[in-house]
């Protein structure tokens, strides 16, 4: 009965992750702490009310260190002396800069949410993760943050998003290296181009598919994958034409 904490749970991939975890047997998923900046998501509230106490909504602003610290203490009480098994850092922002770098005026904002806030959340929950059996931290990244695939996504007008996610990938590696000896596993996962507010209706996959495939990876992760950057696997998409393939392999940094 593993415990999970997910940031950015009120919509998009975060909401779909909570829904997917709540649908699994209690023997696999015990407690799910769904955090969000606002607690006014009808869909999330519905999941919480139908979960028989397995899913709890906690208001947390990932960009506010005091909020993170307060919630860490609250979650400690909710876990009743047990540790946290899985932390999924999902909350994030994207940009749209059709003028390219000349029009990029939000790098600090995206860096704070996509990188600094992930560090602060991870740092804040490390004591609970140390007490957990799994000690797994998942950072939701993107292939747009891959140096190896930079040419593939040359025309994508999201420079601040690319830059911040590349930095998130390095943050993942730094944590993986420092805490490997303590039994932690830190992994970056690209969930695919999903039909959310962030991904748009033109995206490749329904958000439910992305969530299902991310959870598949999460539940099979072991220490041998510490510090890896992983792609989801969607049958039929392994060699799809275009920029995106979902083959379940490691993504080039």
Automatic annotation (TrEMBL):
Pfam families: adh_short
GO molecular function, one term: oxidoreductase activity
InterPro entries in alphabetical order: Fungal_SecMetab_SDRs, NAD(P)-bd_dom_sf, SDR_fam
Organism superkingdom: Eukaryota
A GO CC term assigned to this protein in UniProt: cytoplasm
Family: Belongs to the short-chain dehydrogenases/reductases (SDR) family.
Entry protein name: Uncharacterized protein
Record lineage: Eukaryota, Fungi, Dikarya, Ascomycota, Pezizomycotina
């Amino acid at each position: 009965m593993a415990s999970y904490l997910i940031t950015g749970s009120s919509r998009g991939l975060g909401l779909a992750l909570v829904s997917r975890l709540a649908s699994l047997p209690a023997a696999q998923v015990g407690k799910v702490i769904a955090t969000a900046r606002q607690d006014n998501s009808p869909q999330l509230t519905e999941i919480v009310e139908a979960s028989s106490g397995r899913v709890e909504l906690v208001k947390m602003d990932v960009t506010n260190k005091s909020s993170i610290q307060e919630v860490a203490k609250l979650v400690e009480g909710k876990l009743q002396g047990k540790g946290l098994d899985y932390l999924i850092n999902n909350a994030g922002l994207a940009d749209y800069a059709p003028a390219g770098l000349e029009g990029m005026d939000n790098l600090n904002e995206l860096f704070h949410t996509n990188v600094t806030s992930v560090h602060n959340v991870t740092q804040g929950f490390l004591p609970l993760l140390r007490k957990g059996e799994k000690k797994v931290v998942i950072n939701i990244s993107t292939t747009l943050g891959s140096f190896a695939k930079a040419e593939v996504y040359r025309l994508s007008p999201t420079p601040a998003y690319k830059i911040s996610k590349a930095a998130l990938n390095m943050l993942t590696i730094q944590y993986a290296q420092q805490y490997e000896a303590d039994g932690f596993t830190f992994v970056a996962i690209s969930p695919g181009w999903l039909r959310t507010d962030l991904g748009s209706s033109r995206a490749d996959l329904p958000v439910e598919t992305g969530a299902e495939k991310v959870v598949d990876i999460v539940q099979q992760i072991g220490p041998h994958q510490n510090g890896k950057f992983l792609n989801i696997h969607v049958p039929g998409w392994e060699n799809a034409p275009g920029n995106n393939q979902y083959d379940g392999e490691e993504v080039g940094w």
